[in-house]
Amino acid sequence: MKIIFVCSGNTSRSPMAEGIFKQMTSGVEVSSAGFSTFSGEKASENAIIVCRKHGIDLSEFRTTNVSDVDFNEFDLVLAATESARDKILKLYPYVTAYTIRQYSGEYEDFDIKDPSEDSRGDYVVCFFEIKEALEKILETHEEFARD
């Protein structure tokens, strides 16, 4: 199975989701992309630091713009927000796309807020919001193998 996480800039939420999900699964190809980024940029310093504290290395991560992605290659698109999901579905109506929280089936608010670049605390909160939703996905979707 191939999954891609999508957010606005591909420097915070989607790379964190990619790193967390890679750590949680095996046999799943995971990547990420963003709408408002140039391919090849680094992840946010706060995202790198917060993930490092949880055993996830984003130091070599580089951004990917959605225009550089062939969405035909992916079985599932998981977006950080409803607006990102809706953009994906508008641009690529043939894909299977949900928000991360929506796909988990556990939330009424489907958006994971973009952390403030100035606040590492916001990144910690964001990390755990993503992690919790991904854990719920693993609990409810048999197609993912857990390490």
Task: Characterise the protein shown here.
With 147 residues, this protein is of the alpha/beta class. It has a four-stranded parallel β-sheet, with helices on both faces. It has a two-stranded antiparallel sheet with strand order 2-6. Helix 3 links the parallel strand 4 and strand 5. Helix 1 packs across helix 5 and helix 2 packs across helix 5. It is globular. 40% of the residues are buried. The model has no long low-confidence stretch (mean pLDDT 94).
Radius of gyration: 14 Å
Number of helical elements: 5
How do the strands line up in the largest sheet? Answer: 3-1-4-5
The overall average pLDDT, rounded, is: 94
End-to-end Cα distance, whole Å, is 15 Å
Order of helices and strands: EHEEHEHEHHE
Strand tally is 6
Helix share bin: 25-40%
How would you characterize the largest beta sheet? 4 strands, parallel
List segments where confidence is low: pLDDT < 50 over at least 5 consecutive residues.
none
**Beta fraction:** 15-25%
Query: Structural class, from secondary structure content?
Result: alpha/beta
Shape: globular
Task: Please name the defining characteristics of this protein.
147 residues; 16% strand
Give a quick precis of the structure:
It is built from five helices and six strands; from the N terminus they run E-H-E-E-H-E-H-E-H-H-E.
